[in-house]
Amino acid sequence: MILIWSAYLLADWVAAFSIGLISNSLGDSSEVAEVEDLMVFWAPFLLLHLGGPDTITAFALEDNELWLRHFLGLIIQVAAAAYVFLQSLPNKLWPATMLMFLAGIIKYAERTRALYLASLNSFRGSMLKEPDPGPDYAKLMEEYSSRKEANLPTRIQITPELRKESLVDYYGYNENALSEFEVVQNACHFFDKFKGLLVDLIFSFHERNESREFFRKRTAEDAFAVIEVELNFIYEVLYTKIVAIHCKKGYFFRIISVSSVFLALIFFLLLDKSKFQKPDVGITYTLLIGAIVLDIISFVMLFFSDWTIVARKKPPKESIFATIFEKFLTIRRHGFSNLRYIKFPSRIIIRSGLPEIKCRKISLRILCRRWSESVSQYNMISHCLNERRKKVDELYDYLGIKEFLDEQAHVSTKEFTGKLRAFIFDELRTKSEVASDSETAKDMCSSRGDWVLRDNNCNDLLPWTIHKEFDESLILWHIATEICYNTEERTNNESEKDKQDREFAKLLSDYMMYLLVMQPTMMLAVAGIGQIRYRDTCAEAKRIFHKWDLIPGGNSKKACERIFSINTEVKPVEVKGDRSKSVLFDGCILAKELKKLKREKWEIMSKVWVELLSFAASHCRANAHAQQVSKGGELISLVWLLMVHLGLGEQFRINEGHARAKLLVGK
Fold first, then answer.
1. Helix, strand, coil percent content, the chain, rounded in steps of 5
2. Are 564 and 487 in contact (CB under 8 A)?
3. 481 by DSSP, 3-state: which?
4. HSE-CB for 245 with a 13 A CA cutoff
5. Rounded to 5°, angle at Cα 8 from 4 and 10
6. Residue 374: beta bridge partners?
7. For residues 45 and 101, what is the distance between their CA atoms, to the nearest angstrom?
8. Where are the alpha helices (H) located in 565-621, listed in sequence order?
9. Fewer beta carbons within 10 angstroms: which end of the chain, N or C?
10. CB neighbours of residue 626 within 10 Å
């Protein structure tokens, strides 16, 4: 990520610096004319370089807002390259140079236009429809009043708005497992319907009912597959050139660009190069062939993109292309079936006097997956037990690398398994079935564990959710989950479901703490004073861990057992006051309450964590989800999009649509 970020920032600087060097060298009398001609011919390649690849135009959402700066850069760089070219005239390579100028300007303009189209104002403006004043109320009432004055028996008949064609009408309703083509087609359909989420637009009951009906009948695997492709569409619209080139004008200019590079290569092949130096000729061929190869790669990627598949409208019939597309989509969704890993040498060790090569396995799934497919983990107790020395911490903080090193040291990842996928989907689908109307859906979105607790008759635990701020509730449940996880005796009689629920609760607990601590911008709308509360809780935990000689490198199990053994008959706030926002021992009290639930506690706790996750997902700002798409994606973004499609959101504010009123005269 750091390497890509550095290359992205250095691209413009390198191009400007290189054109400056070429310009200065033209005035050097020691350079022969042929060498100067070649150097001028190289200048347009820098414009191609500034155009960048099709797969990345912006590194972050904020880059799109700087499209005007890039447009100014386009004008300046083209002017500089044109100045260099005019300065070199007469030039033997002027036809090839002009062709490369044309290709470079097109590529750079594509990038600038892509940034403009993805900017917030432009993106919102592209989705806004014509202003809707609704039916003419004044005209209707004037006619109604005039007929009443004429003593005519008049009444108003209301006809509901007609149902529009839906996805079911267009593709035909199918409750079976989705094919790879259907996954992409459905994802594109819902992306077109709901891309307004990214700019906080509102939606109608027609759209809610259609997506809710579709996703409720899907399996967890198919539902998440559609969501993953939909997030991929979001990424491509916001961070790539796809919108700029996937249209008739885009194809036209791309053909001109590729043809220009190809004609420039032919011209250079036919040119007498006897007066050129061989290294310079080799560099020129490398630049030309490299540009053509990159264009070929871009074409192949465009040909196999989801946009091309969607453009076919219907799944292709049996043919070689249909087989290739189907195989490609299968690999993207499921990976390679026979070859799952590749090995490469990582280090050499000496064993029994002989050298032995140790290999490291890399999953090939990384090459074809649509998002990270992992769940980040951060554990507060573990972090407190592995505290760095204070002076070292202060040094890292002074250098501005403390947060980066904390993430490297204390954040791990776990695979987003099919079982976890099914568990989350089943919980959200159950809520969707209950939320038949938009008001109930809003109540569901506002639940922070209380709906699960009421449903399981755990009313004694409700104060730990509804009477607490969200960030406080999250830290409390994280501490309680960690204590229960580390103090529970494992038995052979434990069912597979109990084991699974325990692992789900632990995984989601650590993930939510990761979001609160390591991704504060995502949780900004719901975090409150979460950072202050977290720091105070960590400070109290470190103090008692030092007292118990558990730092550094203490065991989490032993630490949780010691915390659990503390007498908590008196509430901490009554002893300590409320200046400190630490909730360490409040979490211990909650853990003791949860212990009373016996065997069903892990099922309840795992469901509470899904509800806390869904609350955070639905209340996060849309641009926070969009920002994470470029960094590999987050589980919370998938949950957010899935909730919307299941009708669990506050975006559906058009309940009835236009009423069609008619005046009827007569009895």
1. 65, 5, 25
2. yes
3. helix
4. 30
5. 115
6. 415
7. 8
8. 572-576, 584-595, 601-619
9. C
10. 24
The span from the CA of 264 to the CA of 175, in Å, is: 54
CA distances from 653 to 133, 173, 202, 420 (A): 16, 26, 6, 32
Strands 341-351 and 354-363: antiparallel
Query: Which tokens hold the place of 317?
Result: 């019939």
Model pLDDT for residues 376-408, shown as the tens digit of each residue: 999 999 999 988 788 888 888 888 888 888 888
Nearest to 361 by CA among 337, 342, 385: 342
pTM, entire model:
0.84
Residue type present at position 306: D
Per the CB < 8 A criterion, the answer to whether 206 and 655 are in contact is no
Q: What single letter denotes the amino acid at residue 267?
A: F
Q: Which two tokens stand for residue 256?
A: 């001109």
Assess contact for 570 and 411: CB atoms under 8 A.
Answer: no
Alpha helices in 176-241 (DSSP H): 180-194, 205-216, 220-239
- Residue 77's nearest CA partner among 24, 121, 135, 18 is 18
HSE, CB side, 13 Å, CA atoms: give it for residue 253: 17
Residue found under tokens 């807002």: 65
Q: Dihedral sign for Cα 503, 505, 506, 508, please.
A: positive
Most distant pair of Cα atoms in the chain: their distance = 113
The three-class DSSP label of residue 483 is helix
User: What does DSSP assign to residue 528?
Assistant: T
Among 86, 100, 88, 83, CA closest to 16: 83
